[in-house]
């Protein structure tokens, strides 16, 4: 797969103009937030970067702002890896290892249900466990299948940010601990070190905001990448993923999110968020300063505007 970006429409089209007006409006508001610094390499992000992209299920992509700047996908990868895992194993097998209940807890919490399953695949505990179910072998083999899957969602070959990966790996004791706890509960498959290493690399995959929109539109289109025509996952895997994103994608703000925005979504500490209007659009937003729970502050604001002024709130 090439690393060529897909053609994007910028100005002129009414949707592109509306996105660009929205970006300027949100940029002019004060949403506060702070760039993530718990992984040293992430602290270097420029807080002024801001981009918004939307991709239709018919394969047209509109983007505005910092549309080609690459950043690490971080926790947004959890949604797409979950889709790949459900596609590979079926929901029943996956669900016997990772639950689908919102945890109401922060992304790095120790959060098991009464059956010993991680509460859901959107928190680190559940995501690391989901990663363990995809493919097998050492960290390299595991990451190869993750990178290929994420690249098919994006429609181009995605690369790894080595510096962020090394930074994650050298500060990732808590994630190793979460992996060990999941293995002790009989949920994580394989060797903890290999799985957690693959998870660190999964989080360190580079995307731009346009990639996020195309990835999201693949879920919106039931698992077919609308730009490349590639069926990345089955319809059922896409549907289950959207359900879990709806209930748990925005961490301990997931309930507020459903009221305020309503779209299934997933955020990452790199400053990206994906959101989906099923059957219509995939949306990507990117702005590094994060709010108190780790969601992009400007990204949340932009999606609230899209939910209400653009009528994207599904309820
Ligand atoms: O596990 C971690 O610490 C990160 N690599 C990913 C966390 C993340 O993006 C949480 N999101 N908001």
UniProtKB/TrEMBL annotation:
GO molecular function: glutaminase activity
Catalytic activity of the protein: L-glutamine + H2O = L-glutamate + NH4(+)
Signal peptide (residue range): none
Enzyme class: hydrolase
Amino-acid positions noted as binding substrate in the UniProt annotation, renumbered to this chain: 75, 124, 168, 175, 199, 251, 269
EC number of the protein: 3.5.1.2
Keywords: Acetylation, Hydrolase
Record has Cytoplasm as a keyword: no
Stated family: Belongs to the glutaminase family.
Subunit structure: Homotetramer.
Protein name: Glutaminase
Included range, full protein: 1 to 315 of 413
């Amino acid at each position: 797969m090439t690393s060529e970006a897909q053609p994007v429409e910028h100005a002129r089209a009414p949707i592109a103009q509306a996105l660009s007006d929205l970006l300027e409006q949100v940029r002019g508001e004060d949403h506060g937030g702070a760039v993530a610094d718990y992984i040293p390499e992430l602290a270097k992000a420029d807080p002024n970067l801001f981009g918004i992209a939307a991709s239709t299920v018919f394969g047209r992509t509109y983007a505005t702002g910092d549309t080609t700047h690459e950043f690490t996908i971080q926790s947004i990868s959890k949604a797409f890896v979950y889709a790949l895992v459900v596609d590979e194993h079926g929901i029943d097998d996956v669900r016997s290892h990772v639950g689908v209940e919102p945890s109401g807890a922060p992304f790095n919490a120790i959060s098991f249900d009464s059956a010993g399953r991680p509460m859901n695949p959107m928190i680190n505990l559940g995501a690391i466990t989901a990663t363990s179910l995809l493919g097998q072998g050492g960290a390299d083999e595991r990451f190869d299948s993750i990178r290929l899957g994420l690249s098919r969602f994006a429609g181009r070959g995605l690369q790894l940010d080595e510096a962020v990966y090394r930074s994650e790996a050298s500060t990732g004791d808590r994630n190793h601990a979460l992996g060990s706890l999941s293995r002790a509960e009989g949920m994580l498959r394989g060797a903890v070190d290999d799985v957690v290493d693959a998870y660190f690399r999964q989080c360190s995959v580079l995307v731009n905001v346009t990639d996020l929109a195309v990835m999201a539109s693949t879920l919106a289109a039931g698992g077919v990448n609308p730009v490349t025509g590639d069926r990345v996952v089955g319809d059922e895997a896409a549907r289950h993923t959207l359900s879990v994103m709806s209930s748990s994608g925005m961490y301990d703000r997931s309930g507020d999110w459903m009221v305020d925005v309503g779209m299934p979504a997933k955020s990452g500490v790199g400053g990206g968020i994906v959101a989906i209007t099923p059957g219509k659009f995939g949306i990507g937003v990117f702005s590094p300063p994060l709010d108190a729970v780790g969601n992009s502050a400007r990204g949340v604001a932009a999606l609230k505007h899209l939910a209400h002024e653009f009528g994207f709130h599904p309820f």
